[in-house]
Amino acid sequence: MPLTLPHRFAWPHAAPLVALAATPTPSPLVPARRRASSSIARAAARVDDSSFDAAAFEAERLRLDAEARASMASAAAAAAAAGDGGEDASEHEGHGDPKAWKWRIRKRVWDLMEAEGIARNPRPVHHRIPNFAGAADAADKLGRLEVFQNAQCVKVNPDSPQKQVRFLTLAGGKKLLTPQPRLRTGFFSVLESRMLPSGAIAEACTSVGAAKYGRPIGLDEKIEVDLIVIGSVAVDPRTGARLGKGEGFAELEYGMLRFMGAIDDTTIVVTSVHDKQLVDDIPVEKLLIHDVPVDIICTPTQVIFTNTTIPKPQGIYWEKLSPEKLGQIRILRELKKRIERETGEVLPCGPSEKLPPTAHRRR
């Protein structure tokens, strides 16, 4: 259910926040983290390229967005129909669709945000990372975190409620790493304020601007990400458990960054949400092995350090990826072929459009 936290979590206006304590040593299976200099010349050439058609890009982005939301709506309806009935479904695990409990929580939060006037454009917020009243305030609190202030490179999701976070990243002279929409057209883009024309930071924080001014990178890019900012539909402040909108792209992006050696277990994950998106009924034992927990939650009124003990994903779990998802994302297909070529082994593939079995997690 929606959760209201006690006043002890209220944002401290005077005292600066301290960074989280160091988390466990990264897995030896993950390559060492690496830093690389930016390629300003290539970025400038891209900015000067008059062939970029902003209107066509935005039209295609909106088309794919509508298509994806329709697909998610169908998936949610199918999960609800196959579910084992009502809010007490968790008591009958093993029956129905294992995704049903996640869709119930998402729908409850989306419905609540619309009903209480919290939702902001794009509307409706259903099947999106929902934009909300006070998103800029939550972003400003995030911007005052010591971990953000000390970061040189910040990965931020491309959704509307995190637009101010992207602005603060660029305005603060930091490197912004943002994924290209749904990873269908590419991978990540890197932006820096010095790459941009005068007065273009606000535009660069939009999807069109990121495509226009960003420098696309590939899997061989040597980059170190100091902080990850991730969007959420619902998050449990007691455990750091998080639900996205249901497409799984945040998890895929995290897994690919792990493969690249750009992040490790110590990389802090932050989300910004409305207080009404805080819930207390995400069952940790039902989370999947690739679900990404959050270390810090920023809302318009408070900052919460979750001290999560949920393990972070160690990479890409190929056995969980459906053929359909793999077919949507070119960069994943390229990576799979590369690994198979280098190892001489065929990587597994998940079942067709079925959520993988629950991976039990230790609390």
β-sheet strand percentage: 5-15%
CATH-wise, what's the superfamily of the largest domain? NagB/RpiA/CoA transferase-like
Helical stretch count? 11
Over the alpha carbons, how many angstroms does the gyration radius reach?
A: 20 Å
Protein name: 5-formyltetrahydrofolate cyclo-ligase-like protein COG0212 isoform X1
Q: What characteristics describe this protein?
A:
single chain, alpha/beta, globular, two-stranded antiparallel sheet, Rossmann fold
Structure description:
The chain is an alpha/beta fold. The protein folds into two domains: 7-59 and 131-305, NagB/RpiA/CoA transferase-like (Rossmann fold); 317-351, no CATH class. 33% of the residues lie in helices and 11% in strands. The chain is built from eleven helices and twelve strands. The strands form three sheets. Strands 6-5-4-3-7-10-11-12 form an eight-stranded mixed beta sheet. A hairpin with a 6-residue loop joins strand 8 and strand 9 (242-243). The longest helix has 29 residues, at 54-82. It starts with 39 loop residues before the first helix and ends in a 20-residue tail after the last helix. Residues 4-48, 84-94 and 354-363 have low confidence and may be disordered. One of its GO terms (cellular component) is cytoplasm. InterPro entries: FTHF_cligase, FTHF_cligase-like_sf, NagB/RpiA_transferase-like. This is 5-formyltetrahydrofolate cyclo-ligase-like protein COG0212 isoform X1.
